[in-house]
């Protein structure tokens, strides 16, 4: 690990506080990550020095803002190893990106009899837009199942059975926000290509956590949320292969996305501008690019190794030291997401009690109600780790859960 | 864990472990349901209404200790009451879980829920079953839903 890892926690001012009289242990990173000072500074710098509307201005500030905004696109293209900046569409986040594809690509290309393939572990945001699309077009939804038991791994043996030539689009989650499973994205994309299906990868939980190369993965679209990778809320992006973006109709109409407008008819600007109607989220896009610098300074290989080490340690220690715990997801090769069920204690009670100890967890269905049902649970508690978490945080997690389990057993 | 023993009083823990009137009520002529999409809590309340009196009430469902205990306590407190009386009891409970103030007149065992007011995120848990029951008693079959969230 390089020098950027030294004193890392000092880069995150929010971590240095007491919650309910105890030092904060933030373990809700799958919901959103904290922001380093450099990202917060990028935001304030923009508003203090550079703020102006982009694209339409000729004055200095507008050119500065435009320049920073388009540089951010280049930065994002490099971050994902896209072929060119034009393959990056800035959006409000993963949900927005998936809706863009489902609407702009889906309405034009799907018809009755076609199949949309998903997996059983999708977040609601990679399920509901496709349900809406299916309703509009008459296409059918189909699911690649997960194997029985608690590992939550995709049942890849079923893939040939569900990935048939009727499948026109295969949308799947890269890293599960509930199970911590890392899916073999390149393998799934290659299989889809063989039957002529396009792929949409929900990379909300992977982009800031592990090395990601869209060309090596071979995906057609990839959806990202900035706030889950040290960036601001309300911003994200869609990667799309240029030929596909060029062929797609716009999703929303408005300013900035047209080349010419007449009272009855308009001509679209080329992608990606075609998909960025209206004044974009300039400040947050610029700050997101800064978050990418921050992550690359640390090194995404090292971040992934750090996440995995903490998750494995948490898994082993919770299993050994907390009575009545049932941990979901695989024991090894997982992301920093560890969901669990504490026997006889509802997730909501776990989270409330942990909060009293200064430990921030999440309890609920994690936006995956069908998966919970399949696992025979109505909700789970979840600890999710990120680059600033430490082994000491796991000590606190373990002792807190021991206390909770004793309290409810007592 | 000082505050927690206030939230999770022994009465609550006991009702969570052994919920009272936890069954389907075959004689019920009203059924109400509620769910909390945030945490997946789900409850069904069965009411046997005679005139405007709640002759019997039971519930089934899954949820956190607060929601289960509150629903269990509710069945004990609403049985035999008229709808107007039930609404008055609920008004007292609602005031208690939002302000921490226990009404002068007897909130009896319901006072165990007073600690909830210190945990605003949990108020909905304490009121879900009551909403479902009162709606059912008043003949409103619409399922009760609390707020939404995402992660
Ligand atoms: C796997 C996954 N997909 C999609 C989303 C939705 O992301 P957003 O709410 O930022 O659009 C989330 C986060 O909640 C997620 O964890």
Task: Provide the CATH architecture of chain B.
Answer: Alpha-Beta Complex
The number of helical elements of chain B comes to 5
- Secondary structural class of chain B: alpha+beta
Strands of the widest sheet of chain A, in order across it, are 4-10-9-8-7-5-6
- The level of helicity of chain A is 25-40%
Major β-sheet profile of chain A: 7 strands, mixed
The average pLDDT value of chain B, as a whole number, equals 87
Q: Tell me the CATH topology of chain B.
A: Sufe protein. Chain: A
Strand fraction of chain B: 15-25%
- Report the span from N to C terminus of chain A: 44 Å
Compounds present? pyridoxal-5'-phosphate
Can you summarize this structure?
The complex is a heterodimer of chains A (410) and B (151). Chain A has 410 residues and is of the alpha/beta class.
Describe the protein's architecture and organization.
The complex is a heterodimer of chains A (410) and B (151). Chain A is of the alpha/beta class. Chain A contains 13 helices and 17 strands. The longest helix of chain A has 22 residues, at 300-321. With 151 residues, chain B is an alpha+beta fold. Chain B has a single domain, classed as Sufe protein. Chain: A (Alpha-Beta Complex), CATH 3.90.1010. At the A-B interface, helix 11, strand 16 and helix 13 of A face helix 1 and helix 3 of B. Bound molecules: pyridoxal-5'-phosphate.
Short key terms for the protein model shown above:
heterodimer; A: alpha/beta; Aspartate Aminotransferase, domain 1; Aspartate Aminotransferase, domain 2; 2 domains; seven-stranded mixed sheet; B: 151 residues; alpha+beta; Sufe protein. Chain: A; four-stranded mixed sheet; globular; disordered C terminus
Topology:
The complex is a heterodimer of chains A (410) and B (151).
Chain A: E1 18-19, E2 22-23, E3 25-26, H1 37-50, H2 60-80, E4 88-91, H3 94-109, E5 115-119, H4 128-137, E6 140-144, H5 159-162, E7 167-173, H6 185-194, E8 198-202, H7 214-217, E9 221-225, E10 236-240, H8 242-247, E11 258-261, E12 266-268, H9 282-298, H10 300-321, E13 325-327, E14 337-342, H11 347-356, E15 359-360, E16 362-364, H12 369-375, E17 380-384, H13 391-409
Parallel strand pairs in A: 3-15, 5-6, 5-7, 7-8, 8-9
Antiparallel strand pairs in A: 1-2, 4-10, 9-10, 11-12, 13-14, 14-17, 16-17
Helix pairs in contact in A: 1-9, 2-9, 3-4, 10-13
Chain B: H1 2-7, H2 10-17, E1 30-36, E2 41-50, E3 53-62, H3 65-78, H4 83-99, H5 123-137, E4 144-145
Parallel strand pairs in B: 1-4
Antiparallel strand pairs in B: 1-2, 2-3
Helix pairs in contact in B: 2-3, 3-5, 4-5
């Amino acid at each position: 690990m390089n020098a950027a890892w030294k004193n890392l926690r000092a880069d995150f001012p929010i971590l240095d506080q007491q919650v309910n009289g105890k030092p904060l242990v933030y373990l809700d990173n799958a919901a959103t990550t904290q922001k380093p000072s450099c990202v917060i500074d990028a935001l304030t710098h923009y508003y203090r020095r550079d703020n102006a509307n982009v694209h339409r201005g000729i004055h200095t500030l507008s050119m500065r803002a435009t320049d920073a905004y388009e540089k951010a696109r280049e930065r994002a293209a490099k971050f994902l190893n896209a072929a060119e900046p034009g393959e990056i569409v800035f959006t409000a986040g993963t949900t927005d990106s998936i809706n863009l594809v489902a609407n702009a690509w889906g309405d034009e290309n799907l018809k009755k009899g076609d199949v949309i393939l998903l997996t059983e572990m999708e977040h609601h945001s990679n399920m509901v837009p496709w349900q809406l699309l299916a309703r509009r077009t008459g296409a059918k939804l189909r699911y690649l199942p997960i194997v029985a038991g608690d590992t939550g791994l995709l049942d890849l043996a079923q893939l040939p059975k569900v990935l048939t030539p009727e499948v026109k689009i295969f949308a799947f989650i890269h890293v599960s926000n509930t199970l911590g499973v890392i899916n073999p994205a390149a393998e799934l994309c290659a299989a889809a290509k063989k039957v002529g299906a396009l792929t949409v990868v929900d990379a909300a939980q992977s982009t800031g956590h592990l090395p990601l190369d869209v060309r090596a993965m071979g995906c057609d679209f990839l959806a990202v949320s900035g706030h889950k990778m040290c960036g601001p809320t309300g911003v994200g992006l869609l990667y799309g292969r240029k030929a596909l973006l060029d062929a797609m109709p716009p999703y929303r109409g408005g300013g900035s996305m047209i080349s010419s407008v007449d009272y009855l008819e308009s001509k679209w600007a080329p992608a990606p501008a075609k998909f960025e109607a209206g004044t974009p989220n300039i400040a947050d896009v610029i700050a997101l690019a800064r978050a990418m610098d921050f992550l690359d300074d640390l090194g995404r290989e090292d971040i992934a190794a750090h996440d995995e080490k903490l998750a494995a340690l948490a898994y082993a220690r919770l299993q050994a030291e907390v009575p009545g715990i049932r941990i979901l997801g695989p024991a090894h090769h997982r992301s920093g997401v560890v969901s669990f069920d504490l026997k006889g204690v509802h997730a909501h009670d776990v989270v409330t009690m942990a909060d009293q100890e200064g430990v921030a967890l999440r309890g609920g269905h994690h936006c995956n109600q069908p998966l919970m049902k399949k696992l025979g649970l109505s909700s789970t508690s979840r600890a999710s780790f990120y680059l600033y978490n430490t082994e000491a945080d796991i000590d606190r997690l373990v002792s807190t859960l021991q206390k909770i389990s004793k309290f409810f057993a007592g | 864990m000082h505050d927690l023993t206030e939230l999770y009083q022994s009465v609550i823990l006991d009702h969570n472990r052994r919920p009272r009137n936890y069954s389907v009520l075959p004689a019920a002529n009203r059924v109400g349901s509620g769910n909390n999409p945030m945490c997946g809590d789900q409850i069904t309340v069965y009411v046997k209404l005679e005139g405007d009196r709640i002759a019997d009430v039971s519930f089934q469902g899954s949820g956190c200790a607060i929601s289960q205990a509150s629903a269990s306590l509710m069945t004990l407190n609403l049985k035999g009451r008229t709808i107007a009386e039930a609404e008055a009891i609920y008004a007292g409970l609602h005031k208690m879980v939002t302000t921490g103030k226990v009404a002068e007149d007897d909130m009896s065992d319901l006072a165990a829920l007073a600690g909830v007011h210190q945990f605003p995120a949990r108020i909905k848990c304490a009121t879900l079953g009551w909403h479902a029951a009162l709606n059912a008693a008043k003949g409103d079959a619409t399922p009760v839903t609390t707020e939404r969230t995402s992660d």
